[in-house]
Specification:
Largest sheet: 6 strands, mixed
Number of helices: 8
Strand order of the largest sheet: 6-7-8-3-9-10
Helix content: 25-40%
Number of strands: 10
């Protein structure tokens, strides 16, 4: 097992707490447990505000859980320090929805891509150049982007840059948090196909988060359905013989467009 999440919780104080005597608590993540195997794609689907992104940020230690544990290759990530923590950061990367705000607008793309290599490896300038050139080719970007600033690139190009930056650290787990939701439909398809190719070539695991059940069905081996901070159902997506039980999951599948009513999944 690559990653195991056990009864993870994240609570926030509501803004209404400032106006009341009693403290109001928002349970953004409420007792979530799941695992990610090696070379596996786990999809997480749910409506906006259900806690998907909060969960993702906890997995990479951008937020501290209120309770629960996250294990990576058997180690509790909350206990990692120094070199062990640096190794984990390198092994578990995340790509966010907003591709532009994820990049420093004052730096050229070439400098943005050099930064993780300089911080995590002892490489010569020639080795850094070769690694960046190799990974740019893998994400289907030309070397011309290296001299450009983020704000001059399209949404699809920006997201490919973010994917490139993450892959330069050779992660074993890549978390994709709504990475195509702000892109045009045609660009979404190209990024999805790219992620499938990269996953296969580099042998990494993925956690693919989306509010779109069709997107998650396309790329995932297993699907976790999330609602109000909890995992309400887990679906085996390999054989496509869906046997969904939870009413919310049924609504997600029933919302999918079909050519004929008889062809609905549920």
């Amino acid at each position: 097992m690559l990653m195991e999440v056990v009864e993870l919780k994240k609570n926030y104080l509501s803004n209404l707490s400032l106006m009341r005597k009693n403290t109001a608590v928002v349970k953004a993540v409420d007792g979530v447990s799941f695992s990610v195997g090696r070379d596996e794609v786990v999809g997480i689907v749910g409506e906006s505000g259900c806690g998907k992104s909060t969960l993702a940020r906890q997995l990479v230690r951008l937020e501290v859980p209120t309770a629960g544990k996250i294990y990576f290759e058997g180690e509790d990530i909350s206990l990692l320090k120094g070199t062990s923590l640096k190794n984990y950061i390198r092994s578990c990367q995340i790509i966010f929805q907003d591709s532009l705000s994820s990049l420093n607008p004052s730096l050229k793309i070439g400098d943005i891509l050099k930064e993780p290599l300089v911080n995590h490896f002892k490489l010569s300038k020639q080795e850094i150049h070769r690694r960046i050139a190799y990974m740019l080719e893998k994400v289907k970007l030309g070397a011309g982007v290296l001299e450009r600033f983020p704000q001059t690139l399209s949404g699809g190009e920006l997201q490919r840059v973010n994917i490139c930056r993450a892959l330069l650290l050779t992660p074993r787990l890549l978390i994709c948090d709504e990475i195509i939701s702000s892109l045009d439909v045609s660009i979404q398809a190209s990024i999805l196909n790219l992620m499938k190719e990269l996953k296969k070539e580099f042998g990494m695991s993925l956690i693919f988060i989306s509010h779109d059940i069709n997107v998650v069905r396309f790329i995932s081996d297993r699907i976790l359905v999330m609602k109000r901070g909890r995992i309400v159902e887990e679906i085996d997506n390999k054989n496509r013989e869906y046997q969904v039980r939870h009413p919310y999951t049924k609504k997600l599948f029933q919302s999918l467009p079909v050519s004929h009513p008889d062809k609905r999944v549920v």
